[in-house]
């Protein structure tokens, strides 16, 4: 089963690996910087060195990790920390549902699905949905490899930040993390390839914006996404 | 420093609540989903990426705040992405613009 599903690679071995790495490199650079800062902040907040590394390895969630760090240092309860994390990361359910449908044709095995899910982040989702939407020849190795490069750099950044904490506290160069934002913007432009999609995107931003002005809640992104999809479906029906 | 068992529990439980939302929907068999779900899902990436990437550039702390390098740097990034269709160039332009604007503003 595995053999047949991944038997259409255009390139194998080092050639594919370096192409995958090249495509993941903006995410790799951005993740490294952000998690470096995370490691630095965690150790400077009095956490043991293993904590940021373990979080980067096992939790692998940007905003949630920073939120959890703030909550731990302020003495919050376990329930609060876990619930906050769940709510911040709940948006990944939407991405996972999309991927369930989009990856159906590739016939992933159970194990491949679990592995892929472990590396699903905002950035990898954004990047992969462009690839899948274009109908580009994508295989499981590419998808999981891409995620592995990103995850590895996230862990290494956290580790290095934690180790360098006492020397590098004044060295925080926070600015490379804009690479992630720039990448998401590029992806957004690529995704808006029809007029309907552009309108759906604007509807989602308008909805998210209006909700964020009222209050920032993890549910905002769900509502905005549903509104965006709803607008898109209405436009499809009309044309 | 909070005690070790507490921190280990935090990491383990955080792992559970971040991994399961990512993993469980992906295990669902989508063969028998009604067609309108597929039509709606077609718009999911663009809607969610727009919502999570653009909104924080426009709004901060429940207020529209456009006089920030994050917002200004997004303009050349979007233009570059649209006209060049080149990821690396767009990321380079965006990051450079952000750093340059950050040192002025």
UniProtKB/TrEMBL annotation, chain A:
Membrane topology: Multi-pass membrane protein
Keyword Membrane (UniProt): yes
Domain of life: Bacteria
Compartments where found: Cell membrane
Keyword terms of this UniProt record: Cell membrane, Membrane, Transmembrane, Transmembrane helix, Transport
Keyword Transport: yes
TM ranges: 21-43, 63-88, 148-168, 174-191, 198-215, 221-236
Protein name as annotated: Branched-chain amino acid ABC transporter permease
Source organism of this protein record: Pseudomonas arsenicoxydans
TrEMBL record, chain B:
Family annotation (InterPro entries): Brnchd-chn_aa_trnsp_AzlD
Transmembrane segments: 6-24, 36-59, 71-101
The entry's keywords: Membrane, Transmembrane, Transmembrane helix
Transmembrane among keywords: yes
Pfam families: AzlD
Protein name per the record: AzlD domain-containing protein
């Amino acid at each position: 089963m595995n053999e047949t599903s991944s038997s259409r690679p255009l390139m194998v071995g080092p050639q594919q690996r370096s192409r995958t790495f090249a495509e993941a490199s903006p995410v790799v650079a951005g993740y490294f910087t952000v998690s470096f800062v995370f490691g630095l902040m965690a150790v400077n907040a009095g956490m043991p060195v293993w904590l940021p590394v373990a979080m980067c390895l096992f939790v692998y969630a940007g905003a949630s990790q920073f939120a959890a760090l703030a909550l731990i240092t302020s003495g919050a309860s376990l329930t609060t920390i876990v619930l906050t994390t769940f709510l911040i990361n709940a948006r990944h359910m939407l991405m996972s549902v999309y991927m369930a449908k989009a990856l159906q044709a590739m016939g992933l095995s159970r194990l491949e699905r679990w592995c892929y899910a472990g590396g699903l982040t905002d950035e990898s989702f954004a990047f992969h949905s462009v690839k899948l939407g274009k109908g580009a020849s994508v295989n499981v190795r590419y998808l999981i490899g891409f995620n592995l490069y990103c995850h590895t750099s996230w862990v290494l950044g956290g580790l290095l930040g934690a180790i360098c904490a006492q020397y590098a506290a004044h060295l925080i160069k926070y600015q490379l993390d804009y690479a992630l934002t720039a990448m998401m913007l590029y992806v957004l432009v690529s995704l808006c390839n029809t007029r309907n999609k552009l309108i759906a995107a604007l509807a989602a931003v308008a909805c998210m914006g209006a909700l964020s002005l009222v209050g920032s809640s993890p549910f905002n992104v769900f509502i905005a996404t549903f509104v965006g999809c709803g607008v898109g479906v209405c436009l499809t029906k009309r044309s | 420093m909070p005690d070790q068992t507490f921190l280990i529990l935090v990491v383990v439980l955080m792992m559970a609540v971040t991994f399961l939302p990512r993993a469980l929907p992906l295990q669902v068999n989508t063969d028998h989903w009604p067609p309108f779900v597929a039509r709606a899902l077609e718009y999911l990436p663009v809607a969610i990426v727009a919502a999570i990437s653009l909104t924080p550039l426009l709004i901060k702390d429940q207020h529209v705040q456009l006089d920030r390098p994050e917002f200004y740097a997004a303009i050349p990034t979007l233009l570059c992405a649209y006209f060049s269709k080149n990821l690396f160039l767009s990321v380079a332009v965006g990051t450079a613009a952000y750093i340059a604007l950050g040192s002025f503003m």
